[in-house]
């Protein structure tokens, strides 16, 4: 397969021996040497089931480097699973032993307990690479870490646990009195990483508080501080949504702005736009929803329906307009910020009944094509 890949013109061919962490080492050296002869340029060494200890995995990388013929001509890579919670430690051990490529995932998502976390590995190298890891660095712009983490969380629906290192909600929270006193005197007392280094802004340097009287210039300036460079059209769209939020809230937070930008800038092309929604529900009868949608041509469509609850009735009304039979697989809503006036992010996962049906190659399980979408709304609109 390696020779075949080279014959197709692939300049970088990666070979990965499954479950290398538990393989016979002499056989492993032999196989790796042969794939190097065949043209492999990257050797990816996986701890497939996450069973090795950091010392074991580091030694494995070092032994491969010392005993594999032709190893000096290729890049050694690592791929560590997190079944025992050691994926980041094993990855760093591999780097110390000579690996120069690491396979990681944002938020550590992956099969079973996940993979080595990009943000943990990158920030560990940033913090300790020069003094402990022999000057290793990644070249990654770490100020995009929080933004990337939130984007993956939003699109996958896999929520980051609050105590997750680097990107968890509590990663830079300090509750202990002694810790708070130390933070007030000098932040480095209890923070080994500045939140600004990963794109988490706690407050702006100018002390500007955004509210309903704020203008475009102040909004553009704050968005720029948060890492968003928007053109005039995008800023205009964000500005009017910002004003709507500011009318409802005394102060618009950075989390509010990030949610608005994500919803406005990073969303796919709109086919149907929700223009209005009215729901009546209670304990005395069926819930009733009236929905107004605007199609891609700008034409308004209105429909009413009843259902077992506000969400069910709303989606049945939508079905009457779109005339596309679907099954609602997931509906979830989470607050972006604190308080009763908080913005919420809503995740919807649907499956069309007329979609193509696939069969999983390994399990034979029937797989239907699914569609997902996210958006921002006011929690108060959904208090039913």
UniProtKB/TrEMBL annotation:
SUPFAM superfamilies: 2-isopropylmalate synthase LeuA, allosteric (dimerisation) domain, Aldolase. Residues 1-146 form the Pyruvate carboxyltransferase domain. It comes from Hibiscus syriacus. GO terms for molecular function: 2-isopropylmalate synthase activity. It catalyses: 3-methyl-2-oxobutanoate + acetyl-CoA + H2O = (2S)-2-isopropylmalate + CoA + H(+). GO terms for cellular component: chloroplast. Its EC number is 2.3.3.13. This is 2-isopropylmalate synthase. GO terms for biological process: L-leucine biosynthetic process. InterPro entries: 2-IPM_HCS-like, 2-isopropylmalate_synth_dimer, Aldolase_TIM, LeuA/HCS_post-cat, LeuA_allosteric_dom_sf, PYR_CT. Keywords: Amino-acid biosynthesis, Branched-chain amino acid biosynthesis, Leucine biosynthesis, Transferase. PROSITE patterns: PYR_CT. It comes from the Eukaryota.
């Amino acid at each position: 397969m390696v020779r075949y890949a080279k014959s197709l013109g692939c300049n970088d061919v990666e070979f990965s021996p499954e479950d290398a962490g538990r393989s016979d080492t002499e056989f492993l050296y032999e196989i790796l040497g042969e794939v190097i002869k065949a043209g492999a340029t990257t050797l990816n060494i996986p701890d497939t089931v996450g069973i090795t200890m950091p010392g074991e995995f580091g030694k494995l990388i070092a032994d491969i480097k010392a005993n594999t013929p032709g190893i000096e001509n290729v890049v050694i890579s690592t791929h560590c699973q997190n079944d025992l919670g050691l994926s980041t430690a094993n990855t760093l051990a591999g780097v110390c032993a000579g690996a120069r490529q690491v396979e990681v995932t944002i938020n550590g998502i992956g099969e079973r307990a996940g993979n080595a976390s990009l943000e943990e590995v990158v920030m560990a190298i940033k913090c300790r690479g020069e003094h402990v890891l022999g000057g290793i660095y990644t070249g990654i712009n770490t100020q995009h870490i929080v933004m990337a983490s939130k984007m993956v969380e939003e699109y996958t629906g896999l929520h980051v646990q609050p105590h997750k290192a680097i990107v968890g909600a509590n990663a830079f929270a300090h509750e202990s009195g002694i810790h708070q006193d130390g933070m007030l005197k000098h932040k480095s007392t209890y923070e080994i990483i500045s939140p600004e280094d990963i794109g988490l802004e706690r407050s702006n340097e100018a002390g500007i508080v955004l509210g309903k009287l704020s203008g475009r210039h102040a909004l553009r300036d704050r968005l720029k501080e948060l890492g968003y460079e928007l053109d005039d059209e995008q800023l205009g769209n964000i500005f009017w949504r910002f004003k709507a939020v500011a009318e409802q809230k005394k102060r618009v937070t950075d989390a509010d702005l990030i949610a608005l930008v994500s919803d406005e800038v990073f969303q796919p092309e709109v086919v149907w736009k929700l223009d209005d929604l009215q729901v009546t529900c209670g304990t005395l009868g069926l819930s009733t929803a009236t929905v107004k949608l605007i199609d891609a041509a700008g034409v308004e469509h209105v429909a009413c329906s009843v259902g077992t609850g506000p969400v069910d009735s709303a989606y049945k009304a939508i079905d009457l307009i779109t005339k596309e039979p679907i099954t609602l697989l997931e509906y979830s809503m989470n607050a972006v910020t604190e308080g009763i006036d908080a913005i919420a992010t809503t995740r919807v996962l649907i499956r069309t009944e007329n979609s193509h049906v696939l069969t999983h190659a390994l399990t034979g399980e029937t797989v239907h094509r699914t569609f997902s979408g996210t958006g921002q709304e006011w929690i108060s609109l959904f208090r039913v």
